[in-house]
Amino acid sequence: MSFSFDETNITKIEQLQKRYPSPKALTLPLLWMVQEQEGFISLEAMEEISKYTTRPAMEIYKTATFYTMFNLAPVGEHHIQLCKTLSCALCGKEDILAYIKKTLDIEVGQTTKDGKFTLTQVECLGSCGTAPMMQINQTNYESLTIERVEKILEELQ
Ligand code: FES
């Protein structure tokens, strides 16, 4: 499998190169760009980022694997990231998790057979005051209840 940035992203990269004096600073923006373009970050994409950033591919790999928001394998159309940290855990995260697993018939780390949903658990997403919460793709869903999750999943089906 090979990877190359599409034309739109190449234009964006050229703009970013003017903004950042050090090509190393492009690492995180390019990782995001790959994820938006492909849905996940392949080893081939890391090698491509390595060329733009003048960093060894292993350095790109270390960065990509350090941050949990980067997908290193394909995910479903809707990537459910349920917070598992203290506030969410104290406010009922386990019930929400059990409901999602049962409804979608998947375990954490799995994708539904139709490719619609992937379920992961993540550390605090910074919405502790409205726990429990989850993020689906780029959208936060807060103050979750079973009823609210049921509605959200139905709307995304
Ligand atoms: S603990 Fe869940 S958002 Fe912070």
Can you walk me through this structure?
The structure is a single chain. With 157 residues, the protein is α+β, with helices and mostly antiparallel strands. The chain has two domains: 7-66, NADH-quinone oxidoreductase subunit E (Arc Repressor Mutant, subunit A), CATH 1.10.10; 78-156, 3-Layer(aba) Sandwich (Glutaredoxin). It has helices spanning 7-19, 27-38, 43-53, 57-66, 86-90, 93-104, 146-156; strands spanning 78-83, 117-122, 134-136, 139-141. A hairpin with a 2-residue loop joins β3 and β4 (139-141). The protein is elongated. The two termini are 30 Å apart. The protein binds FE2/S2 (inorganic) cluster.
Which class best fits the helix and strand makeup?
A: alpha+beta
Helix share, percent: 40-55%
* CATH topology (level 3) name of the largest domain: Glutaredoxin
Spatial separation of the terminal alpha carbons: 30 Å
CATH homology-level superfamily of the largest domain: Glutaredoxin
